[in-house]
Design a protein that fits this description.
Helices cover 23% and strands 27% of the residues. It is an alpha+beta fold. It has an eight-stranded parallel beta sheet. Strands 21-22-23-28-25-26 form a six-stranded antiparallel beta sheet, with helices on one face. Helix 9 (364-376) packs parallel to helix 10 (403-416). The protein starts with 10 loop residues before the first strand and ends with a strand.
Length: 523
């Protein structure tokens, strides 16, 4: 026997036998964080082989001919995530295996729901409602769009205090313009080391409470970026409290390679089962709150699930993570908490918003990916949390994106109701500022894909409402023009519709949208 092969612990594992029509090939799947899936919804044509397809949190399988679908989804995530594996045998969808790797046999498993119906999109919407009700989640996104500014996607790690303050002044001047920011966020770079969040780097000479006051005096909310569960091995908190961190099998702090440059590149994870660590987290957030900061972008949350030894041996990575999230929520109950790199189900009930796509950039490929990832998760919008599409980009400088790419980016803010930007309002062209303003002023509700979504393609037509009236959108991330009929967006083909993004005036029957561009219609 190979000495490298080790037995697997006896965890919770069940199966759902499928009785779908022969040849059923439809599947929708997702990952449990903001990662991008190449094709979350697809028709599977693998025949004659045993094949497996995995999905996190939820999976839908079925038959597009008979409109017969089954959804299996996790309803809770208190101690373990739930993973689903579709097993296909001899061209048939045979069964779905359900795994909860941190639930031992005999322990209470996480709740799982199985739904059946003839509309796979509605099954996902119903599933989201069930999860929201079971976890006592509040109503999200009923008011106006959330707008704001952060420096990262314009300056990245080279940002200076001067850059931030210049843009703060620009945001203050534009309070009466088409784009008025609700929040201004201090981004990565203000701190000494990752983990020492209240320690200000000497390259930022103005005390953070003074900067926060300038924001609030300008009529905006003060925000800040941090990674609450992490610290680098160069940090003061690690040097002073090495016993506060998750340990490896040898009892040493377990280290991960982070994305920061040296000496901030080696990261350790706080052991949130330790009461002193919970108090530390509360103190970090309450200190910021005393400084006037009420918006927190909590990045790197997935690193907070590090496997290893914790002070409480009965804790799982997920249950420990939720202890930390609970401590933060209790510390600043009146603040807006945005999860970034968030494990979706583990964050439920503790956050107000969550990033649901990878980082964007001012270029076509990144905007295409972000657009697809956002509309693939339409069923989450305002159900689990406010869905943050990452920043919207309209600018013409420091960018290789076309105006059409910009319209796609703006649509991510319109579909989610969250429109944070890094565009520099001191340099943005007037027509681009007007476009940016539309992401703040327009909200397309009841957003969902329309028409077929099958093999090797992404949907281009979407239905919804704007101000209670029928609306349709075309999001063309392909390299060819697309023509969409009004009825394919749920619109009346005989009735005029106004195009809102391109100033094309009124349209009837059909609309043609150029490659890598977007159109938005309201009747």
């Amino acid at each position: 026997m190979n000495s490298e092969l080790r037995p697997v612990k006896n965890f919770y594992r069940r199966e759902i036998l499928l009785d779908l029509p022969p040849g059923s090939n439809f599947m929708y799947r997702q990952c449990n964080n903001m990662g991008f899936l190449a094709e979350p919804s697809c028709t599977i044509y693998t025949a004659g082989f045993d094949t497996e397809y995995t999905s996190d949190d939820v999976i839908v399988v079925g038959d597009e001919v008979s409109n017969t679908y089954l959804l299996a989804g996790a309803v809770t995530a208190y101690r373990s995530f739930t993973f689903f594996t579709l097993i296909k045998k001899a061209a048939n969808q045979h069964k779905i295996e359900v795994r909860q790797p941190d639930i031992m046999e005999g322990e209470t498993p996480e709740e799982v729901v199985v739904l059946r119906g003839n509309d796979w999109k509605k099954l996902l919407e119903d599933y989201a409602t069930i999860v929201a009700e079971r976890n006592n989640l509040p109503k999200f996104g009923e008011g106006k769009n959330l707008t704001g500014y952060c420096t990262w996607y314009y300056y990245y790690a080279d940002v200076t205090e001067k850059d931030l303050l210049e843009n703060l002044d620009a945001m203050a001047k534009h309070r009466s313009s088409c784009y008025a920011a609700d929040v201004v966020q201090i981004d990565d770079g203000y701190q000494t080391f990752q983990g020492d969040w209240n320690d200000q780097d000497e390259t930022w000479p103005t005390p953070l409470p003074e900067i926060a006051k300038r924001m609030t005096d300008s009529g905006m909310r003060a925000g800040i970026w941090l990674m609450p569960f992490l610290a680098s091995t160069a940090s003061r908190v690690f040097r002073e409290h090495p016993d506060w961190f998750v340990k490896d099998e040898n009892g040493n702090p377990k280290v991960s390679k982070g994305w920061s440059p040296p000496p901030d590149d080696l990261w350790v994870c706080l052991d949130t089962t330790i009461p002193a660590v919970q108090e530390h987290l509360k103190n970090v957030f309450q200190t910021f709150r005393k400084w006037g900061i009420t918006y927190f972008k909590m990045d790197g949350l997935g690193f907070g699930l590090m496997d290893g030894k914790r002070s409480d041996p009965s804790a799982t990575p997920l249950s420990a993570f939720r202890l930390g999230m609970k401590a933060i929520r209790e510390a600043v109950p009146d603040s807006y908490l945005l999860g970034c790199c968030p494990p979706f189900m583990a964050c439920l009930g503790y956050i107000d918003g969550a990033r649901i796509s990878n980082d964007t950039r001012a270029c076509r490929n990144a905007i295409d990916h972000v657009t697809k990832t956002n509309f693939a998760r339409w069923w989450m919008f305002d159900k689990f949390f406010r869905c943050d599409p990452d920043v919207v980009i309209a600018r013409q400088d420091r960018s290789t994106a076309s105006i059409g790419d910009n319209r796609l980016s703006i649509m991510t803010g319109i579909m989610t109701g969250v429109s944070i930007t890094s565009d520099n309002l001191n340099t943005i062209a007037a027509d681009r500022l007007e476009l940016l303003g539309k992401s703040a002023q327009i909200r397309m509700r009841d957003f969902r894909p329309a028409g077929h979504w099958g093999t090797g393609c992404w949907p281009v037509a979407f239905s919804g409402t704007i101000d209670g009236r029928k609306a349709g959108a075309v999001l063309n991330t392909t390299n060819e023009p697309v023509t969409v009929k009004f009825e394919d967006m749920g619109l009346d083909p005989e009735q005029d519709a106004e195009e809102l993004l391109q100033d094309l005036g009124k349209r009837k029957y059909v609309i043609t949208v150029m490659p890598h561009d977007a159109a938005l219609l309201k009747q």
